[in-house]
Amino acid sequence: MRSDIARCLYLSVALLTILTKGGRSLMAAEPAVRAVDFESRKIYQSAHHPSYTSWVSFFPGEHGQWYLTCEKVTRPAQPLPQCTPQQWYEMSLPVGYDKSQYRMEIVMLESRDNMETWKVTSRQPVRFHHSAGSFAQARTEDGRFLRFLWSCYSLDPSVQPNEVFYQSTDDGETWEKMAPFHDPHFISSPHRLRTLRDGTMVLCAPLQPVWGEGTDRPTRGSSLNVVSQMQMTLHFSHDQGRTWQGPLPLYGGQNVSETDFVELPSGDLLFFNNSIFSTPGRQFVYRRGNVFTPGPLEKVISGTVPETVCLTKEGVLVGCMRAGSYHWSDDLGLTWQGLGGTAGNGEVYQPWIQYLDDGRIACAGHLGADDPIGERDQYISIHFFRLEVRHKTTATRLTMERDYDAATGRWPNAYTLTLTSDGQPLADKEVTFQYTPGKHLPLPGETLTLRTDVQGKAHVALPDAFDEVEDRHAAYTVRATFNADRTDPDFKPARAPSMHFYALAHRDPPLQPIRAKGSAE
Q1: Is the bond preceding residue 50 a cis peptide, omega within 30 degrees?
Q2: What value, to the nearest 5°, has the Cα angle with vertex 164 and ends 140 and 71?
Q3: Residue 267, Cβ neighbours under 10 Å: how many?
Q4: For residues 384 and 356, what is the distance between their CA atoms, to the nearest angstrom?
Q5: What pLDDT, in 10s, does the model give residues 169-226?
């Protein structure tokens, strides 16, 4: 009996210790935001079996209507002409992905009741190898539809790879091919088209060297032995798609085929290189009038960078990664967290997310993946939910300075980190400090955990061996972060700029005046 009571007391104390680890209740460690009222709605499915409806575009109209398009592929009773061996060779497709003998059409659905109901309003027959790539579409203020296609996949020999832009002035009944959109040395696969608050349109379209018979690249999978085979670029229209400016390169040196962005309250744009690619991160594009200037690509601190993103009125970024995996960030994409309250069930592959005027978030996509035709029954769905902000996190700032010894005129290999929030010091907080020696410095690196004092400062000195270095070219990199893993739920993470320093650091001695020849000693 006594042993049972003792065991219960022990378990109670242990549980209390877990729930109050570090003097903080883990109840307070719940995520700052959560999805509520999650709902999945099937919007469209082909009546044919197996049903192939994939690759959505999801965009608003000029009077509150919404549009959703997809590619519908069906097997006709009489198969269409198969692509030639040369066409199949140039495309370099996996077995089972050639749709040349199937009927393909771009189906457009419209909703005029806040997405409660949908009806098919347009069908554009097209002939493409695997996909028409109709991801980038928009509706103009005067009721025109703009549509960009992957013309490099077209089976129509009269269509050139740079003729990617189409327009409809009759609600999608007919489509007019517009003038060549970009330089003929390149093919493009337009991916995202969004309209900014002032009506400016921004198209994200990766460019890569043209391929095919008679070019330097005989097949789609050929490489020119270059640093980056594909370059994401931006194109801008300030007159509702009548004329375009660009291309403006993005993500320098990165092979990136897909991206998304949000418009910030300042009017600047924030782009995201998602975690499908090798360097996940963010890139600001600053706007001054009609001039857009890209900043550098910044690596993410932690988390999964989603492939489609929206910005809520609370300043929280919400995004989706195929298929139905949701993530959020309240520090403009420096860190990302999984979003609770959502259900990833294989739906909304190749997602397209929108933030609605009523505060809901809507994300469209198809069930499945990049499937060969006939592998599964696909359908188009939209996920709806709201974002519940449980508590707001406080912004922080982390700075790092190398110490200076005025008596010797040297900078020892020691650093002072300062953590603040709204200009006030944050005491008793853990800060991670890392130093990584370069190739001229044969010393080990290390990652340290520091704690700030009452002034919000943390001090660290590298091992004495660093101060004994005599090679003037021996250098290392230092980095510092706060709350990168969100263990402190009250504060936003912070990252000091990483810095590259020489271990041997002192000012050169002052120069002495040059004495004139023949002057007295």
Answers
A1: yes
A2: 80
A3: 14
A4: 10
A5: 999 999 999 999 999 999 999 999 999 999 999 999 999 999 998 899 999 988 888 8
Q: Cite the beta strand spans of 390-493 per DSSP E.
A: 397-402, 414-421, 424-425, 430-437, 446-451, 457-461, 475-482
**SS3 at position 10:** helix
Boundaries of every domain in the chain? 33-389, 397-502
User: In Å, how far are 89, 474, 487 from 129, measured between CA atoms?
Assistant: 11, 55, 49
**DSSP string spanning 54-86?**
EEEEEEE-TTS-EEEEEEEEE--SSPPPPPPHH
Find, among 59, 33, 31, 27, the residue nearest to 386 by Cα: 33
Alpha-carbon torsion, ordered 118, 122, 126, 128, to 10 deg: -20
Query: Which residue from 263, 340, 329, 267 is spatially nearest to 300, judged by alpha carbons?
Result: 329
CATH 2.60.40 fits 397-502, yes or no: yes
Q: How confident is the model at residue 383 (pLDDT cuts 50, 70, 90)?
A: very high
* Tokens standing for residue 102: 């199937």
The residues, ordered by sequence, that sit 6+ positions from 511 with a Cβ below 8 Å of its Cβ are none
For the chain, what is the mean pLDDT? 92
Residue 89 DSSP symbol: H
Strand-pairing partners, residue 434, are: 447, 479
pLDDT for the residue numbered 373: 85
pLDDT, one tens digit per residue, over 340-360 is 999 878 899 999 999 999 999
What six digits make up the tokens of 341? 């309250």
Of the chain, the percentage scoring pLDDT greater than 90 comes to 84
CB-based burial of residue 381 (10 Å sphere; 0-12 exposed, 13-18 middle, 19+ buried)?
Answer: buried
How far the first Cα of the chain sits from its last, in Å, is: 102
Considering only CA atoms, which of 104, 148, 140, 141 is closest in space to residue 123? 104
The CATH number of the structural domain formed by 33-389 is 2.120.10.10
Query: In Å, what is the CA distance from 114 to each residue of 110, 188, 262, 356?
Result: 10, 33, 22, 9
Q: Please give the structure tokens belonging to residue 146.
A: 């703009």
Other C-beta atoms within 10 Å of 156: how many?
Answer: 11
Burial class (CB in 10 A: 0-12, 13-18, 19+), 434: middle
How far are the Cα atoms of 250, 364, 487 from residue 257, in angstroms, in the given order?
A: 11, 20, 34
What's the DSSP call for residue 249?
E
Tokens of 86: 């040369």
Cβ–Cβ < 8 Å for 164, 190: yes
Note whether 378 and 51 are within 8 A (CB).
Answer: yes
Q: Is 467 in a helix, a strand, or coil?
A: helix
Main-chain phi, psi angles of 97, to 5 degrees:
-110, 5
Instruction: Choose among 143, 154, 151: nearest CA to 121.
Output: 143
DSSP class of residue 182? Answer: S
410 backbone dihedrals φ, ψ, rounded to 5°: -120, 155
Cite the DSSP H helix spans in 362-425: none
Closest CA to 236 of 283, 275, 294: 294
